[in-house]
Amino acid sequence: FNSVMTTKVQDKNTKLVAVLLHHFGENMNLARIKLFGMFICALCKVQTVGFEKLATAFETRSKSESSLRRIQRFMAEYCLDTDLIALLVFKLLPHKPPFRLAMDRTNWKFGSSNILTLAVVYQGVAFPILYRMMPKFGNSNTGERIALLERYIRLFGVETIDCLLADREFVGEHWLDYLNQHRIKYHIRIRGNFYVDAPHSGKRIKASWLFSDVKIGSCKFLHRIYYVNNQLCYLSASKIRNKQGKPELQIIVSFNKEHNAQEIYKERWQIETAFRALKSSGFNIEDTHLTDIERIDKLFALVIVAFTRAYVVGIYVHLNLKMIKIKKHGRREKSLFKLGLTVIANVLLNPKNNWKIDVFKFLSCT
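and the corresponding structure tokens:
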């Protein structure tokens, strides 16, 4: 990572294409690979998905109008295999499996759609690795969740899963049955007014009643197993303060007898951090105003690669070149993602930048 970057268009494009050919050469033609590379570089420079702005940031001798047409044709006509994107992101991850996975969905601002996402959580962030476009408002169903998880297992193997984390939406009977049958560990939140059944007594009781003695800042684990939606699970809870500052029980159902379930579940919020980076605090993904599901699908895939690349660069810079300052409140001055994105943009835009690293090397997974 010590080579100094040249600003010549030909040199930059040659470096990037060579790296991407290693990943996509047998599955994507050269013209598409070049467009892919220029697109994610332009994303890091302009930090928005508005096609007109991206086109002006393409490093090519063609006019921006020509680049804009290339982007539009790619989005409208090209059938992108998002399994290839998942495999690339998997290789770029900064740690090794087994992984803690988080499942969540985010609403798409324009059009009636949701994006159901499966992400790898890691030290304050989540890397979206697989997703499913849902042309509807509201919750996902069991079939959609199972299909996404089975796709992950097909690509990477069930042995790469440490556990699955999910919020209160993801507690359906058939969904829990699927996870139990496949012995996939999970920690999923349920509502306090959820009724559970005690096998030892046959009584049905509100989950919150089992934890009425839990005080703020403390947690409790039940050693007996309970039926939740007719599926046997372990229960634990902690009392936290919600966004309004009011006391609230956080009740978790788990596959296994895990005394750290509450601590592990806290990592689920990292996927919300990733959504913010993809949207308002990073690439402003909704700036495009796209409403067509297939085009959103391709755009999301490209942004995920740029996001992962920026975060991996941020980790490297923080650990090896310049540590992020810690403020008085104990949080970092900026996120690792923002650091990486700033460094990449500086290298690509500033011919006299001070960052003596090859930002293209980070896509080669070496």
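(Above: one complete record from the training split.) Residues 1-7 have pLDDT under 50 and may be disordered.
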